[in-house]
Structure formats: C-alpha cells, structure tokens
C-alpha cells in the first residue's frame, strides 16, 4: 500500500488547510514522494484543486479560432466566411472583436 489511511487523512487535511502548489511540494518533500504522486492521491480523494491557466495579462486564454467564431456569430454570418481571419494577429482580432461589441 502506497499511502496508509492515516497518511491519506493527514495529506488531505494539510492540503485543505492551504490548497496551493507549495503545499503539494512540502508534502512531497516531507513524505518522500513525488509531487505527481501527491497530486494523484489528492485527486483520488476528490480534494485537489487544479490551478487555472491565465495569460500574462491575467485573462482566460482565448484562441484566434474562438475570437473569429464569436465575430461570425455577432455579424450573423457563417464561420467559414471569416475563416481566413484566424491568420491575423491576435491583438488585431481582439480590437476588431471589441469594436463589434460596441452598440
């Protein structure tokens, strides 16, 4: 058995007190396990909170394809009619998208 019931309870309790990646690192070091092993155990116990990826500006990442699809919807045209826009710089697509949302 990789983790005893007591060890599992301790891991879960400590992680729930401070659910951060640093806690995972500390638990791994303390118990002589890998971070992946600790994350796996926390996931199996249903308590692990996956960190959400954000861009450098703190926004949720959006693909160029998603931006073009939103524009097509706003303009009430088929996505295929705007498909080539995906090759434009993302910053240009964002400016264009913001201009379309202004009523």
Describe what you observe in this structure.
With 103 residues, the chain is an all-alpha fold. It has 2 domains: 5-44; 64-101, no CATH class. It contains 6 helices and no strands. It is rod-shaped and about 60 Å long. The model has no long low-confidence stretch (mean pLDDT 90).
Topology:
Elements: H1 5-17, H2 21-31, H3 35-44, H4 64-75, H5 79-82, H6 90-101
Helix pairs in contact: 2-3, 4-6
Quick tags:
103 residues; rod-shaped
- Rg over CA atoms, rounded to whole Å, is 22 Å
Percent strand:
under 5%
Average pLDDT for all residues: 90
Shape: rod-shaped
Q: Domains counted in the coordinates: how many?
A: 2
Main sheet properties: none
User: How would you spell out the order of helices and strands?
Assistant: HHHHHH
**N- and C-termini, Cα separation:** 62 Å
What low-confidence regions span 5 or more consecutive residues with pLDDT below 50? none
Structural class, from helix and strand content? Answer: mainly alpha
Q: Figure out the total of helices.
A: 6
Helical content stands at: 55-70%
The oligomerization state is single chain
The total beta strand count reads 0
């Amino acid at each position: 058995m990789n983790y005893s019931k007591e060890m599992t309870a301790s891991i879960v309790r400590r992680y729930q007190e401070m659910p951060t990646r640093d806690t995972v690192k500390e638990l791994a070091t303390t118990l002589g396990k890998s971070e992946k092993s600790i994350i796996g155990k926390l996931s199996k116990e249903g308590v692990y909170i996956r960190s959400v990826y954000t861009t450098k500006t703190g926004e949720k990442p959006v693909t160029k394809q998603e931006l073009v699809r939103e524009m097509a919807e706003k303009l009430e045209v088929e996505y295929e009619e705007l498909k080539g826009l995906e090759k434009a710089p993302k910053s240009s697509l964002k400016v264009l998208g913001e201009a379309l949302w202004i009523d």
